[in-house]
Design a protein that fits this description.
The complex is a heterodimer of chains A (about 110) and B (about 110). With about 110 residues, chain A is mainly beta. In chain A, a hairpin with a 5-residue loop joins strand 4 and strand 5. With about 110 residues, chain B is an all-beta fold. The chains are: A mainly beta (about 110), B mainly beta (about 110). At the A-B interface, strand 4, strand 5 and strand 9 of A face strand 5, strand 9 and strand 10 of B.
């Protein structure tokens, strides 16, 4: 059974510092890995999707890397801002239609 | 664009009552999903559908039923609500179930069972 782990569960950084969020998974036979953002009381917003054949994806200040062989992904957020405060979740797809989620990392960026 | 819309947003039920949660998407997506989110457990897939008229079980299907009579709608039913079903329920949809299609989520339904 696929297990997805995100450590730490919570993170607090001063504004301007780079954020590094970690995700690990037990089964390397994945279709893709996605990073989501969740604001309090809201649904999930897809940030980046990395195909199993890719090593990284970038969007603005966000960069996500994927190492299938070691079962790890890292989300980097450069020059963090208070508006980046949210919970970040990673999820992997083993088949084409089901996601397995990690428990999330709650991020607080202090002004 | 509305995207994925869930109704209701909040509901309180008594044990044993039944209710239906509605999910509607206007993106012509083939695949739709129902998840529940519980503290410390992340999101878990309840049921999903790969097209109109089809449904399949996810990770935690017991106590729930679903129907996909129309492509744009995916209904989640609780026949006899139990306190263990207190949770936040999220609906999602994707164009296909392929690995390059992100899922789009609704804002959730917060359900409390007393």
């Amino acid at each position: 059974k696929q297990e997805v782990t995100q450590i730490p569960a919570a993170l607090s950084v001063p504004e301007g510092e780079n954020l590094v969020l970690n995700c690990s998974f037990t089964d390397s036979a994945i279709y893709n890995l996605q990073w989501f953002r969740q604001d309090p009381g809201k649904g999930l917003t897809s940030l980046l999707l990395i195909q199993s054949s890719q090593r990284e994806q970038t969007s603005g200040r966000l960069n996500a890397s994927l190492d299938k062989s070691s079962g790890r992904s890292t989300l980097y957020i450069a020059a963090s801002q208070p508006g980046d405060s949210a919970t970040y979740l990673c999820a992997v797809t083993l088949t084409g239609n089901k996601l397995t989620f990690g428990g999330g990392t709650r991020v607080l960026v202090k002004p | 664009n509305a995207g994925v819309t869930q109704t209701p947003k909040f509901r309180v039920l008594k044990t044993g009552q039944s209710m239906t949660l509605l999910c509607a998407q206007d993106m012509n997506h083939e695949y739709m999903y129902w998840y529940r989110q519980d503290p410390g457990m992340g999101l878990r897939l309840i049921h999903y559908s790969v097209g109109e008229g089809t449904t399949a079980k996810g990770e935690v299907p017991d106590g729930y039923n679903v129907s996909r009579l129309k492509k744009q709608n995916f209904l989640l039913g609780l026949e006899s609500a139990a306190p263990s079903q207190t949770s936040v329920y999220f609906c999602a949809s994707s164009f296909r179930g392929l690995g390059n299609q992100p899922q789009h989520f609704g804002d959730g339904t917060r359900l409390s069972i007393l």
